[in-house]
Amino acid sequence: MTVVLRRVNRVLLGLAGLVLVALGGSVLAAAAGLSVPSWWPWSGPSDVLLTTADRQRWRDEGWWWPVVIAVLGLLVLLALWWLIAQFRRARLAEVAVDSGDGEEAVLRGRALEDVLEADAASQDGVERARVSLTGRRTAPRARVKLRLEPYAAPVDALATLGSQALANARAATGLSALPTEARLRAAKHRARRVA
Length: 195
What we know:
Elements: H1 2-31, H2 52-56, H3 64-87, E1 94-98, E2 104-108, H4 109-121, E3 126-136, E4 139-148, H5 154-173, E5 180-186
Parallel strand pairs: 4-5
Antiparallel strand pairs: 1-2, 3-4
């Protein structure tokens, strides 16, 4: 799914770029006095985008300007959504696993995330764990968020994460390496009263 979205994104970006370059180039050509096709609406530097007649044609129609504003607003929202989507990290849908017989098996990325979360959450001192996989299916990367109990030592939590949960994941999938970014946060708790 991620590959399909990436291709659609590239195609849309390419088409938008071609349209903008063609429009901009032809407007610049007309403004510079170069020859443009006869059907092109602007033929010289003195032409305007909308003539007075074009601007006043729909003045008496009460629905025209609200529709124009709504369509332009929708286009702005779609462009913002597209821009924000560029910065989101896509989760890995599947991980390629060497099955040992020369063939490649596929493991769902969510299944591996669930196992890693369960392993990490079962550690002593870890209240909650969240795991997301990114990267390529043949070279996944893990992002782990651990919420630690008040008594937990971060150094011990990281060492146990590397020696147990991540080691088990590498062994189960046959990966030689699983680069991991770990973020630790302490669980909120009330201060103890000392008598």
